[in-house]
Write a structure and sequence with these properties.
The protein is an alpha/beta fold. The chain contains 9 helices and 5 strands; from the N terminus they run H-E-H-E-H-H-H-E-H-E-H-H-E-H. It has helices at 2-5, 21-32, 39-47, 51-58, 60-73, 91-98, 110-116, 133-147, 159-172, and strands at residues 10-14, 35-38, 79-82, 101-107, 150-153.
Length: 178
């Protein structure tokens, strides 16, 4: 499994809310025999509140600081890590996790994401009150593309198929196939 990993031993899933990072992450971890970790769940456990409650009570800036602290504190080995969609706002956090693993961007169209996310108000989306989901998508997409070591086009694929695509890149060493 050295091909995509190339000395780093974690796979870090990045992408928009609703892209399937947590679902794919669990499946991928089972396929590779890795541990699984979800940074959103770590934040909720640490703060003893749901993401949306943290954002509502402490604000977006404080939420991003908490998220960055969680990223900087990760100590993992042979782990698939599902990150929150806002992870790419912390250059220091992204730098830290990219030193331990490879970032895999789960690319999904804005239209598909909007269909998948029915509970936008309760989901814990890190976005300003005057920002639409389309604004968020346009803002984040170039950042995901910038930081990704591998991009997986998820259109028309279910979670098993996405995990299989990532596994193929890990095992066969097709990391350059962005």
């Amino acid at each position: 499994m050295e091909s995509l990993l190339m000395g780093a031993d974690n796979l870090i899933l990045i992408g928009m809310p609703g892209a399937g990072k947590s679902t794919v992450g669990v499946i991928l971890a089972k396929r590779l025999g890795f541990h699984f970790m979800d940074t959103d769940l770590l934040i909720q456990a640490q703060e003893q509140a749901r993401l949306q409650e943290i954002i509502n009570q402490k604000g977006l800036e404080r939420f991003r600081q908490i998220e960055e602290q969680v990223l900087l504190g990760l100590r993992t080995h042979r782990c698939v890590i599902a990150t929150g969609g806002s992870v790419i706002y912390s250059q220091q956090g992204v730098r830290a996790i990219s030193q331990t693993g490879r970032l895999v961007y789960l690319q999904v169209s804005q239209e598909s994401l909007e269909q998948r996310i029915a509970d936008m108000g309760e989901r814990g989306l890190v976005m300003g009150v005057d920002q639409s989901f389309a604004d968020l998508y346009r803002e984040r997409t170039p950042l995901y593309e910038k930081y990704a070591d591998l991009t997986i086009d998820c259109i028309g694929l279910n979670a098993e198929q996405v995990a299989a695509q990532i596994e193929m890149h890990v095992v066969l060493g097709e990391a350059g196939a962005n």
